[in-house]
Amino acid sequence: MKRVEGTADVKLIECVSPAKNKWRVRWDIQEHEDGSADYMEAEFLNGRPSDEVVKALIMDWYNQKVDETILKGFSYEGVQVWLSRENQFNYKAAYDLAVQTNGATLPVVFKFGTDETPVYRKFSALNELTDFYTKVMLHIQKTLADGWKKKDTFSLNKYQVE
């Protein structure tokens, strides 16, 4: 699968080579002001993919985009924060412990940014850590909700061949 350029009125599924029984499935069409568009496309060389295959392909792609956005799409105070599962756990554990001890476990230091340009952020007050952790959780919740919305609006009816 790859992102390709074309027109906004592209067919979502079509046989592009009847002699070879080659099909293409398209989704995530992004229209541009000039009338062009780009979209994701997957090619199937052994005939028309089943509805189950089309749905699984697109749902898996949406799930990957959600995971990628959670992982790489958050910044705090202008610095990218890597939200791996391990980091999410560490942030939650530090926050929970700070709340339970009314801040006695502070300060805590987290490494943000990248390995090439790390930024070490020290949280000395509970309200600072609360602000950070709340924003992390809002980012995750919004990203999940956006992904659910996209997946909920998916319709196999649009992938029927007439």
Broad structural category:
alpha+beta
Distance between the termini: 24 Å
Encode the helix/strand succession as letters: EEEEHEEHEEH
Estimate nothing, just give the exact number of structural domains.
Answer: 2
Shape: elongated
- Strand tally: 8
Radius of gyration: 22 Å
Percentage beta strand: 25-35%
Instruction: Quickly count the helices.
Output: 3
Mean pLDDT: 96
Unreliable segments of 5+ consecutive residues: none
Largest sheet: 4 strands, antiparallel
Helix content: 40-55%
Question: In what order do the strands lie side by side in the largest sheet?
Answer: 1-4-3-2
Task: List strands and helices in order, with pairings.
Blueprint (H helix, E strand, L loop, with lengths): L1 E6 L5 E5 L4 E10 L4 E9 L6 H22 L1 E3 L2 E3 L3 H16 L7 E6 L4 E6 L2 H27 L10
Antiparallel strand pairs: 1-4, 2-3, 3-4, 5-6, 7-8
Helix pairs in contact: 1-3, 2-3
